[in-house]
Every structure is written in structure tokens, then in C-alpha cells.
Design goal:
With 261 residues, the protein is α+β, with helices and mostly antiparallel strands. It contains eight helices and seven strands; from the N terminus they run αββββαβαααααββα.
Length: 261
């Protein structure tokens, strides 16, 4: 092979090597760019996931500062009887406003004694309201655990949005109270409400937001300032009374109603 041919062959090899090197460099650049894009997408995905969890999870410190719409009323069925239910500044009023006996019950959904008293006499309060002998004011306060504030807010949300379920929810909140639920966040209360039949979206949102939790705190301060020393606390016609069992409560209310006729 002549020297001229050798030089030509060498130039061709060099050109070929340069071309392969250029292609390899191009591939490396492409892979690098692709890696950057995929990395960015992963980062974005992580950020989106964090945002989703942060916005859809249960708030750690939900404490809405709204006030329940006092004066709003509805007719609900209690023991087969249509009974007025009204939202008050302190809680829920059940029964005819002109009933001869007025009962005030101060209760905390997180209070074990309140839970026991609800099991013992809860049906009696509903009965005297349904019979027309008494109007019962269920005053929500919170002394024991945050379950009481979240439960009180849930109660008021239901009274506002789906009042026909209020008596069911009121009783269920006490039945549900215990060590395993005292640490529930508002998302758990929302899910619990849905299990009890609450379907109105604003009501469920209200529960999740803890919309009336701050109101429960204010209500608690006012109650303690007015002479309430603990829960459950029973007042009949403006005077503090001993806690009465179901039969004794019904009898006392009937006697007072008859005396006032």
C-alpha cells in the first residue's frame, strides 16, 4: 500500500472515530437532559404529594371561630312526635318554648360521667320534651379532653345542617367517647358523622373544619363564670338540681308541669 493510500485510510479512521465520539457525546447529553427532567418530575411529584396530604389530611389544630346561627329552628321527630329544635347561643334547645318547665343540661362530650349520665337518663330528656312538659337546653362545654370541643362543634354543625339527625348524633357522640377516640382529629369526626347518615356536604365540611370549636371554648368560660362547676350539671327552672335518673327526672318534670297549670 502506497503512503498516499495509508494517509487516506488514516484520515477515514480518524473521521469515523470523531463521528462516533460526537454521537456518544450527543447520547450522553440527551441522557443527562432526560435525567434532569425526570428528576424534576420526581421533585414536583413529591411536592404535589406533600401538598395533597397537607390539604386533604385531618387538621392538627382545627379550631374554627364561627358562631352557630342562634335562632335557626326546625321541626324534628322525637319518639314519633314532631318537636321544635332551635339553635341557641349556648347549644341546642329541644321542645316547645312555652313548656311549663325549663331544663338546662351542661354537658361535655369528653366527660366520662356525662357519658354515663346520657346512658342513664338521656332518653328521659327527649321524652319530657316530646310530651311538651319541658323545654330542654343542651349546653355544650368542654372541660376534659379536646374530644369535647370537636364533638360540640360536630353537634352544632349537624343541628344547623341536618337537624333531623341531631338526637342520633348527640347520643352517638357519648357512646363513641373513650380512650381510643379522645385523640380523634376533626377528620375522624367527619367520617363518623358520615357513618351516622350525615350526607350534607357543608355539614361534613363544617365538622372537618371544626367550625364551632372556638365557640365551645367561649361557651365553657361563660358557663363556668355563671356558677357551673362541672359536668354533667343539671338546672331546672333556673335552680341547680341533683342529677336525676330517668324515672325520677320524668316524675319531677311532670309534677312541676302540673303545679304550673
Amino acid at each position: 500500500m502506497s503512503a498516499k493510500n495509508k494517509k487516506s485510510e488514516l484520515r477515514e479512521k480518524i473521521a469515523e472515530q470523531r463521528e462516533q465520539a460526537a454521537k456518544a457525546a450527543k447520547r450522553r447529553k440527551l441522557f443527562t437532559q432526560l435525567g434532569i427532567v425526570l428528576g424534576a418530575l420526581v421533585v414536583v411529584g413529591i411536592i404535589v404529594a406533600i401538598v395533597i396530604v397537607a390539604t386533604s389530611g385531618t387538621p392538627d389544630d382545627a379550631s374554627g371561630d364561627a358562631t352557630p346561627p342562634a335562632g335557626q329552628s326546625a321541626m324534628v321527630t322525637v319518639a314519633g312526635v314532631s318537636v321544635p329544635l332551635e339553635i341557641t347561643e349556648q347549644g341546642v334547645k329541644l321542645g316547645n318554648a312555652d313548656a311549663p318547665v325549663t331544663i338546662d343540661l351542661f354537658e361535655d362530650f369528653s366527660c366520662p360521667h356525662c357519658k354515663d349520665y346520657e346512658a342513664t337518663a338521656g332518653s328521659a330528656f327527649l321524652q319530657v320534651a316530646a310530651e311538651g312538659d319541658a323545654v330542654v337546653n343542651f349546653n355544650h362545654i368542654n372541660i376534659v379532653t379536646p374530644y369535647g370541643a370537636r364533638g360540640g362543634s360536630m353537634s352544632m354543625c349537624v343541628a344547623e345542617g341536618q337537624p333531623e339527625l341531631w338526637t342520633t348524633v348527640h347520643s352517638a357522640l357519648f357512646t363513641n367517647q373513650g380512650q381510643s377516640t379522645n385523640t380523634w382529629r376533626t377528620g375522624s369526626f367527619r367520617d363518623f358523622a358520615a357513618q351516622l347518615g350525615v350526607t350534607d356536604q357543608d355539614t361534613l365540611d363544617c365538622i372537618f373544619e371544626g367550625r364551632y370549636m372556638n365557640w365551645v371554648a367561649i361557651n365553657t368560660e361563660a358557663a363556668l363564670g355563671s356558677g357551673v362547676t362541672g359536668t354533667p350539671s343539671l338546672w331546672i327552672n333556673g335552680e341547680q338540681a341533683q342529677l336525676l335518673d330517668s324515672a325520677s327526672l320524668i316524675q319531677a318534670v311532670r309534677q312541676l308541669a302540673s303545679a304550673g297549670e
